[in-house]
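Archive entry. Fields below.
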Amino acid sequence: MNYLTSIGLEVHVQLRTRSKMFCGCAVGFGAEPNTQTCPVCLGYPGAMPTMNGEAVRLTVRTGLTIGAQINARSKFDRKSYFYPDMPKNYQISQYDQPLCEHGSVQIDTPAGGKVVRIRRIHLEEDVAKNMHFANASGVDFNRAGTPLMEIVTQPDITSAEEAFAFLVALKQILQYAEVSDCNLEEGNIRCDVNCSVRPEGQEQLGTKTELKNLNTFKGVLNALKYEAPRQVEVLRRGGTIVQETRRWDGDAGITTSMRTKEDAHDYRYFPEPDLMPVVLAPAQVEAWRATLPEMPRARRERFVSEYGLPDYDAGVLVADKVVADFFEAAARQAPNAKAVSNWMMTEMLRLLGETERDIRSVPITPQALAGLVRLTEARTINSNTAKEIFAELFEKGGDPEAMVKQRGLGQVSDTGAIAALVDEAIAENAKSVEDYRKGKLAAAKFIVGQVMKRSKGKADPQLVTKLLEERLAAGA
Amino acid sequence: MTPDLTSLTVHGALALLESKACTAVDLVDALVAAIAARDPELGAYVSLDADGARREAEAADKARAAGTGGRLCGIPVAVKDVLNVRGQPCTCASRILQGYVAPYDATAIARLRAAGAVMLGRTNMDEFAMGGSTENSALKRTRNPRHPDYVPGGSSGGSAAAVAGGVALCALGTDTGGSIRQPAAFCGCVGLKPSYGRVSRYGLTAFASSLDQVGPMTRTVRDAALLQEVLGGVDPMDSTSVAAPVPAYTERLTTDLRGMTLGVPREYVVDGLDAGVERAVRAAIERCRELGARVIEVSLPHTRYAIATYYVIATAEASANLARFDGVRYGQRCADAADPLDLYERTRAAGFGPEVKRRIILGTYVLSSGYYDAYYLSAQKVRTLIRRDFEQAFAQCDALVTPCTPTPAYRFGEKTDDPLQMYLGDIFTVTANLAGICGLSVPCGVAGGLPVGLQILGPAFKEEQILRVGHAYELARGEGWLG
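PREDICTED_STRUCTURE:
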């Protein structure tokens, strides 16, 4: 029997705000423990929350980018449970009236495009961070109260790979909408996963498990690659799935039970009496809608039509907004957008990958890349020289046109000078000439190499090949 | 002859300060001496920073001399131990907050400071403001200044006893279900519960967030009006505070009640209403009629559901509000906790008293999965009906006049074994909190030798109307009401 998998995600996104959700403390990563706190985010007696309007705007903006319904009235609720990372032992969240509902995100799967429905987007506050020492535990409240947006999908995802594709697409949207820095290392995006399987033909979803401790997209992928087959195996053996929360152990590559439904919290939600409901005027929502930037799918289509890129290339470039921004800035100044794209797709992404750097932190500028493309298009330099210059720009920056001029790296396209070098090479490599005439065409490449060596790499290799073939055909 | 500085009203003290007949330091010294003499018996205060108060008084005297003093410049104020005052303990009369020192000023305190008031000391209360006799204080017993065997009421029992007992000119209380008005009635002073949203709750340790209000407790209605002018107004730190203009209440007081209509709710004449209380209140209403008010009967049909509704909503909110007292960040912490759960259980078991535990358990229950709709949601619906009762009543009259409490103060221990009896004592006061309206208690005589309070209720943000009724009545009543 075949089994179908249903996956739903709850994605927590740290919003790009200057201050916390309910107080004026700075939001920041890496500060000394408990230096970004106040009576409000420490849950001191008598302290009261006040709402961060920017966090509401960013959440609504996210809703607008995924075509969600923006609720004219939403409210905050208290979610109660005791844990040392919770200053008040309740979290201010949104229970039954979230800011946004009913959106969708398009993803690419091997079988084509697919729509994942979004159930809701709500706003809440983050918890603190527990730290454990040899003989004691501590709590760092710097993170407590950071604005978190929770995006909840419908269980439309049917495989680990689709879940991964969804997260990639969502991250793109969040970056494009500039609602989050999406820095995974700093925990800007965290994910809980619900997974169930059922026999093919069965309408009703199977019993689900919730997976926790998934801090990377790869972790989600790998956890689901383990969990869905595990559930199928249990059912195949005649067992039943227990509704439970399971922890992903990335090192061991397995999920293990944390707690079953019987131990589940009763969160005792009730409306937060310290905050007024959020009422959004339609005019306000429309004003925010008017400021939406171009989203990745639209940009991909535009890259195809405006710059003549293949769809695949456009897809790769728009995947990361800052990479796409770089491309577009360079393409606008270069004579050939496709050539710019080629540099981006090959050298740039390769070097970024190898060095694990962000395109914003490397010295090469879009202006420099455009200059490099101008040099190759004009055949002022050959491709080997261009690659060397690119590597140098990537490492140190600079103006490629000035570099070529100063160092005399310009390609030798003087037919007479190259012809002389070709003649020399033919004279000194009689054996190769003979091999060529016997039909070993690869021998010509050796001779071209010899000519390039003599020119110190500056000869135009195409010109060299052309002249050599002419000479050999003429029986020189 | 030097006047007795401890028996002054706020206005009386301001007049002496203005005429240089006394200084703020004199007032503080007189009160500190009175506290030393009388408070060991009375038990109104839980802490006193006499040196700090004297320093603030010196600063106030300098400000007054320089002409930069505010409206309460040099007036010492006693503060219920539920409000955060920077650098001072704030125990909420609970063991669990022993050792906690507030790192910030509540907005009400900041406003008093800005007006030049001097923070005198901290008054006793029922633990976390839960109770009506101050017997639930984990720290000490406060006695009724009119009779040492009787309770002062609560939860602001320390503030009421201090004002009525000659050890404070005025005080701050808080009122969630009657905790300003009821002790004011029991001790024989004036207590104003402002409309919900009128005074910022920022810095008030929350009991029930949708019901709590800070308000003044004074010796005269005019003094309450003055303090309320200083306390009132919107605060960006409290999202539930309302941006309604604060009228100059003291300028709107009148000596008669001509043109006013007062409503008497028929549902407030209940079984168990003490005959002496009823007599005193009827006489007070008659006095209002003589002052020119038209008196009509009105109906508040949902009154009989008020106590049940109140104890569902208040305990639900309290169960979440008091969750933060866990021993992790401040206050008392049990020794050698094995794990977080052990830390919570032992800290809270030792830190909270029985009434607080009872209410946390009740509130946790009514919010539990499967019970929420039957209790919390139903209570919210009834709350709406009670609010509508008042809207309909206030369509016919400017203010309501009722007894503040069904009985005068009772003896210590008389109701401690029967929490339900204790809760029923809130019957005339909880409705104002549920409806978010304003209420005032003014002494109107005695029953069995103990003070009786006349409660005056007014529409939300119409404090000027109840202050006007209270002030005119108080003038007509005169000084000899205690008999």
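CURATOR_NOTE: Chain A has three domains: 3-287, 296-407, 415-473.
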